[in-house]
What does this fold into?
Amino acid sequence: MRKFIFTVLLLFVFTGLSSASVHDRAGTSGAAFLNIGVGARPLGMAGAYTALGDDINTLFWNPAGLSLTRDKEIGLMYSRWLETVDYGMLAYKFPETGWGGHVGAGLIYLDMGTIESTLEDEQGLYGGRDGTFSGSDLALITGYSQKLTDEFTLGANVKFIQQTNVDDIGRTVAFDVGGLYSRPESNVTLAATIMNAGFPIKVREESFQLPLKITGGVGYREPEEFNIGLDISKNIDDFLTVSLGGEYKTGEILTLRGGYEYGNKISEMGFISGARIGFSVLWEGLKFDYSLAPHGDLGLTHKAGLILYDLF
It folds into this structure.
């Protein structure tokens, strides 16, 4: 156990040092809402969840984890993101198939509400108001997971993605693939995912690549006590991001979470912006999750979620 924690800390420190400047492709991807984390539980651990996912949230992080979830599990999340944007998810884990496969389905939505449109004068300065406009994003996801051996599990998602900006609508299809490896007698799990691999999305006659993301993760589970995870990820338009987080079960009801995400935004928003905290309360088949994340001068982001199981 001590060797595992020491190795995780070394990887966290030395790999994180690569994020020191703005990537030359920053902001060039389409469907950027796919970069926003989903689920109050994983976000309470700073996203160090790729190797630890065992509830319906794993549909959005590593589809291979669907094999570890309960049947007929329902997940919801809502966040008032950065003061003006409504962001949420809804997901369901179906009963296990007759051949041992596991299926989940869900959606992510983002609603930017009503935004004021402005004009520019000949000098490029503020030239007054020009009404309002609105925008929204949506992703519909279906995932499948199959345990291939006692040690290896493979999963995949299909995503239908839509972006709406005033009267312009862009649509495309993307895919996720993920794997888990763990020996039956081991507390350590290794994970890897490729997310948002698909076709460019076209909006206003211009095509944008999707935010392709590759992640490797390692997790350590001490059943009924605590979990520790480390994720190292690379997005197509950003440098490496390193996430270290965990959760501690104080008993049958309360679980405490915390973590730190080290990436390029640290240099933009300050060191504290990488910190994450959260908790969950479990009561008779219903679990309430909460996470809190600072975003520098933009304020705090709160995410609340519910997981329901064993209800029908």
User: Anything to note?
Assistant: The chain has one domain: 2-308. The domain at 2-308 is CATH 2.40.160.60 (Porin).
